[in-house]
Design a protein that fits this description.
heterodimer; A: mainly alpha; Rna Polymerase Sigma Factor, Chain: A; Arc Repressor Mutant, subunit A; 2 domains; elongated; B: alpha/beta; 3 domains; 15 helices
């Protein structure tokens, strides 16, 4: 669908056209369902969340800023909803923002890192992802599934913008560990390194 | 390259590498990194590994490996009042009223005529009517509840294995379990005639007697109930409980203190029955010396009522001759009714049939017979006929709407299953005819009664819902499969309207309704089976 077609569709949705709404839903619901599926613990949770997210989208469609990409706005609504869901259930157990600043990060061996990638299927990666703390999992999904910007990730997860990179890197390390690649890191702190 | 090559005194850190890779560094810093990369193989290699990791993550997260649930595919609708909805709601209410007024209320009135005159029909059925067997059976019910509780706990413990059970095996297992409960056998004397069974005069069975044989003759007494399955049954002794009979021929010459429930080709009563009679009988003879002190409910091919009935009569019969005494009201639906000169009906008589009743001059009637001779087939010239169709459409539409909103996944599964015409028709045929048989078998034991009645209720709901699924399928063929609740409702409304119109066609209408019912029922069974079968692999 071209941008012009999408803009027209969104205009029709704003005017209450149910056919247009059905088309919009049909187009984006599968992606949002998969997004929720990556973040929330159970398939049923993802189904409920998808429905609830689209109810919110329909209620808030008037607030959508047409100068921004629609998918970015859509994923923002979805990520806020999922994050609220996790928070309501009090199953977020990861570290707070303050801890992120002092997290030790270890350098990987590039060769071993590539071997890790070659040895694990996509399914195993998704399994590993489920074992991560909620914030780490959210960060990876927001960035690498929804293509959200660092600003949007910071806003959604309630961390400061400069720490999004640390958060993402930390999440990658946790995923490598979850996949059994803990031995590929060297025991040196990058914060001690000289900048080029 | 070994890990030790990363002497941090000369290389940038991993965070910087990631930020550079993702375009998050400010331009000046990015230039420094780029400059370093041009001369540093180790950092280039790290950057390359991180970049590959990004691609690896994207691919893993975006892989489309899992089917999208149908519940998600149906678009949620914004709630809001609309004149169309108000009109539809009004029609639906009118339809419900029509269903109540046309079907439920007359059925209740008929039951009331038959002596089920208490406010609550179920109370009557269970505690004063045909099914109640006394407090002893409540003990069995308690045992059943205990067993059911244990079963629920077991199912809960085994819920991880639940998906391995199919719907059919579960239902059949439960039925077999209930039918085979030892509590019945504990309190009964079970006899297998080879080939015939006889209880001699003077002998007494102190418990219930369950007997099967080619010919069964009971000259002795039975303290409990007599449950008999045989070609020919003759009861000359005293039965202090009920008689429950499946027989080609049943003759009751001895007194029965309880009820008689009979599924027989012919039944002849020559004695006094303490409570009620209910029977599905081809030829029924209620001899002049026989007495029934309760009510009589019969579905018979031919019936002669010459005896004395104290309670109400509810009869559906081909030919019916009354030449005896009826102590209260009679409600009769028959092809032909003859009331002889010896007949006396104290209460009111309502008759519905194809022919005028033949009433002998000497017959004593408490009040003139209310006669209804329904015109055969619908009267297409009357507007009320079409209005009635519209209201019935409204009722089915409302029912479909409730199904769609409450069970959207099952609804869409069933509509999808309707596309598989062959399996749907086959399964529908099986379940349409087999379910009432299974339910009837379940009802023949007091512990199976709850299961039987529940099965019948679910069966009726399923049969009614069949038109909803086929209507939606029909709408889908005409309007396409566009996604969303609105289109789904539109398809439902149109499809049901078409079915309603088709069923108005003389003669063919009934056939169409039968096919729709079989097809829709089969689709529902397929959908239920799919829902209870193992799900496809879910996302890791």
């Amino acid at each position: 669908m071209s941008e012009a077609d999408l803009a027209q569709l969104l205009s029709q949705v704003r005017m209450g056209d149910t056919e247009a709404w059905g088309e919009l839903y049909r187009r984006y619901a599968p992606a949002i369902f998969r997004f929720c599926r990556r973040i929330l613990p159970a398939r049923e949770d993802a189904e409920d969340a998808t429905t609830e997210i689209f109810v919110k989208v329909r209620q808030k469609i008037g607030t959508y800023d047409r100068s921004r990409p629609f998918t970015a706005w859509l994923y923002k609504v979805a990520s806020n909803h999922c994050w609220d869901t996790l928070r309501r259930r009090r199953i977020r157990q990861d570290l707070e923002t303050g801890d992120l600043e002092t997290l030790p990060l270890e350098h990987p061996d590039p060769g071993q890192l590539e071997r890790l990638q070659n040895e694990h299927t996509s399914k195993e990666v998704r399994r590993g992802l489920r074992r991560l703390p909620d914030r780490a999992r959210m960060a990876l999904v927001l960035r690498y599934y929804a293509d959200m910007s660092y600003e949007e990730i910071a806003d959604t997860l309630g961390v400061r913008r400069p720490f999004v990179g640390v958060l993402l890197l930390r999440a990658r390390h946790q995923l490598r560990d979850a996949l059994g690649g803990s031995s590929l890191s060297v025991r040196e702190k990058p914060t001690g390194g000289r900048q080029p | 390259m070994s890990a030790s090559d990363y002497s941090l005194a000369s290389h940038f850190d991993e965070v910087t590498a990631l930020l550079y890779l993702e375009g998050q560094l400010d331009p000046e810093r990015a230039r420094e990194v780029a400059s370093h990369l041009a001369s540093c193989a180790a950092c280039s290699q790290l950057l390359g590994a991180l970049e590959k990791e990004s691609v690896w993550l994207r691919e893993a997260l975006r892989e489309d490996e899992e089917s999208i649930p149908t519940r998600v595919i149906a678009a949620p609708e914004r709630t809001g009042t609309h004149w169309g909805w108000i009109a539809a709601f009004g029609l639906c209410l009118a339809g419900l009223y029509t269903v109540w007024d046309g079907f439920v209320a007359p059925a209740l009135a008929q039951a009331s005529q038959a002596g089920f005159s208490q406010g609550n029909l179920f109370t009557m059925l269970f505690f004063q009517g045909a099914f109640w067997q006394g407090w002893d059976t409540m003990r069995n019910m308690t045992e059943l509840l205990a067993l059911a509780t244990l079963a629920v706990v077991a199912i809960w413990l085994l819920k991880k294995q639940w998906h391995r059970l199919t719907a059919i095996s579960f239902v059949m297992g439960a039925l077999i379990g209930v039918l085979g409960l030892p509590s019945i056998a504990d309190a009964a004397d079970i006899e297998h005639g080879s080939p015939s069974y006889s209880l001699p005069a003077g002998q007494e069975v102190k418990t219930d007697l369950i007997v099967a044989g080619n010919r069964v003759r009971i000259d002795g007494d039975v303290d409990g109930d007599l449950l008999v399955a045989s070609q020919s049954v003759e009861v000359n002794g005293h039965i202090k409980g009920d008689i429950l009979a499946f027989a080609q021929e049943l003759r009751v010459n001895g007194p029965v203190d309880g009820n008689i429930r009979a599924w027989c080709q012919s039944v002849t009563l020559n004695s006094t029955i303490g409570r009620n009679l209910m029977g599905f009988i081809d030829v029924f003879v209620f001899a002049d010396k026989a007495r029934v002190l309760g009510t009589m409910t019969i579905f018979a091919g031919n019936s002669d009522l010459d005896g004395r009935l104290s309670g109400d009569l509810l009869a559906f019969s081909g030919n019916m001759n009354i030449d005896g005494f009826l102590g209260r009201d009679a409600r009769i639906s028959a092809d032909r009714l003859t009331i002889g000169s010896n007949a006396e009906i104290v209460g009111q008589t309502k008759y519905q049939g194809r022919h005028q009743p033949d009433v002998a001059p000497g017959a004593k009637l408490g009040s003139p017979i209310q006669i209804t001779i329904p015109k055969r087939g619908p009267d297409y010239t009357r507007i009320s006929y079409y209005w009635h169709r519209v209201l019935l459409w409204g009722a089915s539409f409302l029912f479909g709407l409730v199904l769609l909103l409450l069970l959207p996944e099952l609804f869409h599964e069933a509509v999808g299953a309707a596309r598989r015409v062959g399996p749907s028709l086959g399964l529908g045929m099986l379940f349409l005819f087999a379910t009432p048989i299974v339910a009837t078998i379940a009802c023949t034991t007091i512990v199976g009664l709850g299961v039987g009645i529940a099965t019948v209720l679910l069966y009726l709901i399923a049969v009614y819902s069949a038109q909803v699924f086929i209507g939606s399928w029909l709408g889908e063929q005409l309007l396409g499969r566009s996604v969303g609740l609105g289109p789904a409702i539109g398809r439902l409304a149109l499809g049901l309207a078409i079915i309603r119109v088709l069923t108005m066609i003389p003669f063919a209408g009934f056939l169409i309704l039968l096919i729709v019912t079989i097809w829709g029922l089969g689709a529902l069974v397929l959908a239920l089976h799919r829902k209870m079968s193992p799900h496809p692999a879910v996302a890791a």
